[in-house]
Design brief:
The protein is α+β, with helices and mostly antiparallel strands. The chain has six helices and six strands. It folds into two domains: about 80 residues, first zn-finger domain of poly(adp-ribose) polymerase-1; about 90 residues, Zinc finger, PARP-type (first zn-finger domain of poly(adp-ribose) polymerase-1), CATH 3.30.1740.10. The strands form two sheets. It has a three-stranded antiparallel beta sheet with strand order 1-2-3. Helix 1 runs parallel beside helix 3 and helix 2 runs antiparallel to helix 3. Bound molecules: zinc ion (2 copies). The site of one zinc ion (ZN) has 6 residues, from loops.
């Protein structure tokens, strides 16, 4: 994604994270987003203090940092790296413990309870602002059914073994959880 890190050219922009202004000359994170007022799907940037972005958009900042070749203060860099590490989201798909009881399983349509395991897949959702990236959640035991339903709806879905391999590769699990979840996902 073409997000960018750059030195602020003015002192007028406010940070999307803390709402304070970003000083001229300070390094800032430019988050590219789809401009809803643009007819041709044009994009604009909104700006963050680097440290604020590292908390809210850790994965995006990590990617932009690895592409950034300009000067950066060593202490600032260490602070941002630590924040990225603490706030990084695991790659999709992965399994996680549900942090709320709001999501429906896309396999069986039953609500996934808070504290239950769920697999999270990246999916594009239509929204008034245009297509947005979001997550689709599935009970581990509903994985096969979910992938089948995706195919029935004409969406691209990986095969189940591939999905299991990627999910386990992207998740931090104890040996016991890994075994149990793998069994559930194969069921
Ligand atoms: Zn800020
Ligand atoms: Zn389910």
């Amino acid at each position: 994604m073409p997000h960018k890190i750059e030195s602020a050219t003015t002192g007028r922009a406010r940070c999307r994270g803390c709402k304070e202004s970003i000083a001229k000359g300070e390094l800032r994170f430019g988050e590219e987003f789809q401009n809803p007022y643009s007819e041709d799907g044009g994009t604009s940037f909104r700006y963050w203090h680097l440290a604020c972005a590292a908390k809210g958009l850790a994965n995006e900042v990590a990617a932009a940092l690895s592409a950034y070749e300009g000067p950066i203060d060593e202490a600032a860099r260490a602070e941002v790296d630590a924040l990225v590490l603490a706030n990084r989201r695991p790659e999709m798909p992965h399994v996680e413990v549900a942090s709320s009881g709001r999501a429906h399983c896309r396999g069986c349509e039953v609500t996934i309870k808070k504290g239950e395991w769920r697999a999270a897949f990246e999916r594009m959702f239509e929204s008034p602002m245009g297509p947005q990236k979001g997550a689709a959640y599935v009970h581990p035991g509903c994985l096969g059914r979910y992938l089948e339903r995706e195919r029935e709806r004409g969406r691209e879905a990986m095969d189940r073994e591939e999905a299991i391999r990627r999910i386990l590769g992207n998740s931090q699990l104890t040996e016991a959880d890994r075994e149990r979840l793998e069994r559930d996902m194969r069921a």
